[in-house]
Amino acid sequence: MDEVPHPAPDVAPHDELRARIDQLDRLVGTPKGEEMKRLAELSAAELPESTLSDLRAGRRVPQEATLEAFVKACLRRAKELRVTVPPPLDDWAAWQRLREAAARTRSRDSSRSTGSGTAALSPAAFVPMAKLVAPAGLANPPVLCRRFVGHTEVLSWLDGISAGTAYVVHGLGGCGKTTLVAHWLSRHPEKYNPAWWITADSADGLNQGLASLAAKLQPALEHSLPVDIQSERAVQWLVKHDGWLLVLDNVGDPSLAEPLLSRLPKGRFVITSRRATGWDRFAVARRLDVLPLEEAVELAMKALPPGRRVDLDGITRICAELGRLPLAVEQAAVYLAETGIDACEYLNLLAQYPADVYRSGGVGWSPEKTVARVWAVTLARLASDSLTIMVLRVLAWFAPRGIPRGLLDGLARRPAVHDAIRQLGAHSMILVGHGTLDVHRLVQAVARTPGAAAVADDELLLIDQARRFAAAALRSRMPDDPEADPTLWSTWSALSPHILAYLDRTNPSQDEPDAEFMAYQISRFLRGQGQYASVLSLAQRSADVAARLYGDDTLPVTDRLTNLAEAHLATGNPSQGLALHHRVLCLRRALLDERDPRVFQAQDRLAHAYLSVGDTARAVEMHERLLTDLEQVLGPDAPFTLIGANDLVHAMLEHDVVRGLPLAENVLERCERALGGDHPQTLTARHNWAGASVLAKDWETAIPLFEQIIVDSARVLGAKHPDTLKAQANLAGAYFNKGAPSKPYPFLNRSSPTPTTPWASTAD
């Protein structure tokens, strides 16, 4: 590549600086428009978007930090493209010297324009700022977006602004802060004068906005004074006048606004920012949340062309999937309108090509205003601390709400993790609660999607490291047994949405032991709680992955196949469950001693499967033989022996009521003596005895028993546990069979299942 020529000696330093900026800009070689996006991504911590166009146009000598950010971003981009940057463009010290010379020259030029050149100005140009009167209706509101809905409470809150107050509307990028304030301002077109809007994402932007106000107050000096002097003149005018309002939009840091507000203590300020903290010293802050679902749907409908046939359910699903974020909802609706695809196809694209969809705005949209870009600046600011980004990437694998902070234990030293959480919360990337964290689902999606908002060269590796840590963290916090101990169910309930979210966001073909074990255990827990929607798919996933990891004919696989068989039985496919239980018993007999408890368990489950397909005689025969073996090997009062006894009672009552009645009473006495009154197996035995009493038409025994079972089950297992609901239904059935009206009962749930027989055991 040819060396970049040096400008002639008589070229003014400011012009030479502008020429070198243009040379470096062209050397990077990125297309116009995309160039702005890329440079902002590479140096967003020091180079806000609003400064880029001014820098390229050479409107003023840039601040040193701004120039440094631009130069280093271009050099980094050149390195990525493997383009050689010739001297002096690659020498930051040379850039510094040239900038200082340009600044001195521009300062002398400004002095001349306000010195000997002042004679050409009219006397009106030098009216003191204190005596200047603002023209009526002086305002510069942004273009009003016609697609605006909701946030009535925040609009009313802004209505209460008074002299000497500053209101801050903060929130996640894309939640509609700027649009909200613009609409609020449009409701009061004559209330404030001037009502001046400043894009204050940088010190340069704030100064430029104030200078523009001074120029409108005194047009004769618009082109005669440098920006810094004009900015100061605007502040002097604001100090001496009232009735005005300043909107400082997109303030990146509270420290940027605080000096101005401290000089104008009687003013009115409305500030928008992604920063959630640091305002309490000088302003009143309020968080702007995402839209309620119905308002998000309304916003989407406004973006669709009139007369288009609309799949309202599909639009609702899109809004829910996008977390009701206004920017994302509007972007999706415009995409639907311009491509002509339906909601189902959009959701499929979002699942298969998330990075592409997040980057795709409407025709004429700025690339900076897409979901993929809206958080890139914030992420780039945070990228200097790799732990902060890693914390966000780990959180991206959990459910959006109620993430226990303990899931981050071990990621780094606790103070460092706490500081990373604080930084993410301060930048509105997460919501910090008491012991839990919330992350918007689209922030999660961007954080775990390669290419959606790249902030590191080794992005794929870092995302995978975060995924592995998330899996290990979830597994380490899972209690041992999801079925046997009710005291652990609250822990399972808290973890289950995060386990399910992780499994939903990962590919089963890539599952490792942690993920496989999560699928196995969470399917057992959900089945035990009667939440069958995803039980079968989770159990199948666990069985398939275990076979891949451990081999087809291994003990871990028999556990997974047992779980899969129970899932089939619970979801109405008893023949498949029976076949799987047969296979498990054969495998365990081949791998274990005949008297091993795991062989006994396989026999018990197979007998229960026969009962499920209606072969009660065979079920009773198998349970009787098994109970004899259990009593001999484990003892008559061993917990597993009593499980087998309860299962025999259940089968016997369906096969031979006369033999079942005394057995049910005997097993209940044994459970109460050996396990206590609140053990789940004791509750099962009590339920069996109540059912036996119904079959014997002993209402005086059955009804009080069911009433007590409801109370005990609700206390021990939970009011919504399947056993509690079944007891409610069986109580109603007992009243019905007795021919008496059932009395109102506090635990009775109208949605409880209706018994198909006069009674039903919890073994079903």
From TrEMBL:
Transmembrane segments: none annotated. Pfam families: TPR_10. It comes from the Bacteria. InterPro entries: NLR-like (IPR053137), P-loop_NTPase (IPR027417), TPR-like_helical_dom_sf (IPR011990). SUPFAM superfamilies: P-loop containing nucleoside triphosphate hydrolases, TPR-like. This is Tetratricopeptide repeat protein. It comes from Nocardia suismassiliense.
